[in-house]
Amino acid sequence: MRHINVIPFLLALLVFGSCSDFDDMNIDPNSKPVNEIDPNMYLAPMMKEVSQHANAGLHQRIHNIYIDSWANYFFGGFDPEYYTHRDDYVDLYWQEHYKWINQLNYIINEVGNTEEYSSTTQQVARIWKVYAYHRFTDFFGDIPYSEAANGTGDLPKYDRQKDIYLDMLNELKDAATKLNTSESLPAEYDFIYGGDLNKWKLFANSLRLRLAMRISRVSDTEISGVAKQHAQEAVASGVFEDNNQMATVQCAANPWGYGYNLKYYSDWGAGNGLVMTSSFYKLVVGLGGQDFPEPEFFMDGHLAGSDVNITYTDVPDKVDPRAPYYFYISDDNNQVVDEFKGRWTAVPTGRTPGSDSADPSLKNDNNPRAGKFAYESYDRRLICMPTSEVWFLRAEGAVNGWEMKASAQECYENGIRASMEQWGIDNGIVDAYIASAEPNVHGTSVSFTDNAGSNNDVMNKIITQKYISGFPDNGWESWADIRRLNLPMLDANQYINPASGVKDGEFAQRSQYPQKQKQFNPDGYKSAIDNQGADLIATKVWWAN
């Protein structure tokens, strides 16, 4: 559906080069005149591309390799957990992002202003543009924003992340206010809500709450006041409370990109796929006091599509009831050797290079991978923002003393219930889990009122549950939480690439800029370095602590 004119596309490869005309990217001037085109036809593909990172290839490279901490994505001997910069990956993300922004700007500034259409599409495009930008600035820090794809063809300046966040919050507020919920988008062009503008308004407010909480720990009383105001206004205006309100988008059943689909590239071939990390394992083992399921749990509807006899050799006694849905037992589907079948274990986060050769128990094939329940369908709906996250954001806000229309405990427990509901966990199990004082490896328990021991304060509980509930699509938020709160309790890498600048025991803070930026936008690049620090993975973004 997306049209790309050849000449502007070639110019776009320079990505903010000396005279690229970003107004032309993705718009085919040989197609129908603007006043004959339904603007929703331009918006629809952006919903899929932004949410899914354009295709399976880029989703794999950015989301799984750079963002996630639930699972290491291993392939071709390259372990992304070492904090190794891959310029080809981040450059591709940079190019795709600004093509999306160009298209969204076209809708907002040109198509959305034609008299024959209401402003509905324009407001939805503004909301979706913030969704695209907030992830992008969280990835890099300072980026071209206010002057990007503005129609002049001039080199855009790099905006400070502080200014970007303040503008995004105001954009969400204004777009939600102007959204006329008595109207609707054509359902066939709305891949997220099927034309329901009431849900789009809830999404705008929920996203506004997320961004407000992101900047809430900045050591500036003015900023903390802005965060509180936006958070309280967003909740008062209405945010997600039920799972049928959360933002999801249909993944492609047919090859999504590079000949892959979501299910296939998440678990393919020997030595590849999403493998459980020790970070995830330590957070869920023992938590909530629920028994590890019997082997029949994994045999029923086995991922390989056959009845396989599973005998446990190494599994925990107790585990968070969602965790076995996320990761499957090591079995024939993993091409595991007989000695290591029946294990529910994990590989060390950022394991030392070569350690898997010295110790076969650390090999990818011999450990659990992302399971059938998480990737059961070739066309499952990808979750852009889950309802559970919104409840945990409100719980954190209530802990801050903000008005969240419910107590911190109510929000916390509602977040757990929303997450459990997604996986079909029985209500009786959920009740017992929420009441449990049984801790995980770090000492964090579920019960909100149980604060005995270390790492068992309210914020540890909230962020631990937020992390667990985010699987498999909300890795951006767990990365944000580790940067702004140093929570949840995650294992630091065993090995870190010295070129990253990241110290032992610490975590990646951002991505380096694509090398092209030094050549094609040297003034903008220099201003970003002067403002936020060296172009290293260890350099913190503005809102991080």
Descriptive report:
It is a single chain. It contains 20 helices and six strands. It is mainly alpha-helical and 545 residues long. The strands form three sheets. It has a two-stranded antiparallel sheet. It has a two-stranded antiparallel ribbon with strand order 2-3. Strands 4-6 form a two-stranded antiparallel ribbon. The longest helix is centred in the N-terminal third of the chain and has 23 residues, at 87-109. It is globular, with a radius of gyration of 23 Å. The two termini are 42 Å apart. Mean pLDDT is 85; it is low at 1-34 and 302-306.
Number of helices: 20
Q: Into which percent range does the helicity of residues fall?
A: 40-55%
Radius of gyration computed on alpha carbons? 23 Å
Shape descriptor reads globular
Q: How do the helices and strands follow one another from N- to C-terminus?
A: HHHEHHEEHHHEHEHHHHEHHHHHHH
pLDDT < 50 runs, ≥5 residues: 1-34, 302-306
Strand order of the largest sheet: 1-5
Structural class: mainly alpha
Strand content: under 5%
Chain-averaged pLDDT: 85
The N- and C-terminal alpha carbons lie at a distance of 42 Å
Task: Tell me about the largest β-sheet.
Answer: 2 strands, antiparallel
Number of strands: 6
Question: Which terms summarize this structure?
Answer:
545 residues, mainly alpha, two-stranded antiparallel ribbon, 6 strands
Topology of helices and strands:
Layout: H1 6-12, H2 40-51, H3 56-67, E1 71-74, H4 87-109, H5 120-140, E2 143-144, E3 158-159, H6 161-178, H7 197-214, H8 221-237, E4 247-250, H9 262-266, E5 273-276, H10 278-284, H11 296-299, H12 323-326, H13 355-358, E6 381-385, H14 387-399, H15 408-422, H16 427-435, H17 458-469, H18 475-484, H19 516-520, H20 522-532
Antiparallel strand pairs: 1-5, 2-3, 4-6
